[in-house]
Amino acid sequence: MSLLTIKELTKFYQADKVAVDHVSFDLKKGECLGLVGESGCGKSTLARCLLRIEPIDSGSIYFGNQAIEHLNERNLHLFRKKMQIVFQNPSAALNPKLKVKESLIDPYNQYKKELDLSYFSYTSKDAFVKQLLEAVGLPSHLADQYPHELSGGQRQLVTIARAISIEPELIVLDEPTASLDVISQKAVLTLLTELRKTLNLSYLFISHDLAAVSQMCQRILVMKEGRLVDEFETNHLFDNERHQYTKELISIF
Q1: Which residues lie across from 233 on neighbouring strands?
Q2: Which of 14, 3, 2, 12 is nearest to 58 (CA)?
Q3: Which key words tag this protein in UniProt (predicted)?
């Protein structure tokens, strides 16, 4: 069953520059789908379009059976509780003036009237925050700290905790380990795998790191200059019929 279906999505940045060029794919419920390609190929632009952070110029975006490319602001707000994003730079994603607990509670406060949580339970603000921190392996005392008091790996775990706090169906992971050291990268990837199974999440995992994508994902899409040039199940990564660009990516990872 497809959770997300993209049909001929196109995004122009200028009249003569196509950032995303007639991209079509589907993402199945419960799947981790990888999207790889070099920096500047259009991966992050595609992610912002899927979340309707940026408008698209043509094409269709379906979440389940609902077309979302033309939703008004109210319906778009309701839709976004179903799809969250984790960005590459956790320092930029967290408000430096807010304590961790305030950042974690913000999505709940935005959507509490529409939420029907099944894994987390809200009995009090402090108990809810503690549950979220425990879910990503962080000690509860970090709730009262500010982002600058945390390590890079801890900050990224906080952004993941915030993303799962309203139990979305899909999380877009946009280069979630790119700014982390090797040890933190491994910890984050392991956690994401566990959370996908525990919370029945689906992921679109965007990265230039083919090794991380092949570890996480069941299927992989390859993007070059705004277009999808290859699509395959991960266990067919090294097949001879792979696109030449895919083979070039393989040769350097």
Answers
A1: 219
A2: 12
A3: ATP-binding, Nucleotide-binding, Transport
Q: Tell me how crowded residue 73 is: count the other CB atoms within 10 A of its CB.
A: 7
Max intra-chain CA distance, the chain:
56
> pLDDT tens, 117-126?
999 999 999 9
Rounded CA separation 48/172 (Å): 9
Report the DSSP beta bridge partners of residue 206. 35, 174
Contacts of 113 (CB under 8 A, 6+ apart): none
Q: What does the alpha-carbon distance between residue 84 and residue 144 come to, in Å, rounded to a whole number?
A: 24
Residues forming a β-bridge with 115: none
Sheet holding 219-224, edge to edge: 83-86, 170-174, 202-207, 32-36, 219-224, 227-233
* Residue 149, both tokens: 């008091």
Helices (H), 31-178: 43-50, 73-79, 90-93, 100-111, 125-135, 152-164
Domains of the chain in sequence order? 1-82+168-179+205-253 (3.40.50.300), 89-167 (no CATH)
| Whole-number Å distance between alpha carbons of 28 and 174 | 18
206-221 per-position pLDDT tens digit: 998 888 999 999 999 9
Residues 6+ positions from 55 with CB-CB distance below 8 Å: 49
CA-to-CA distance for 203 and 217, rounded, in angstroms?
9
Global pTM reads 0.93
| Chain mean position to CA 99 | 23
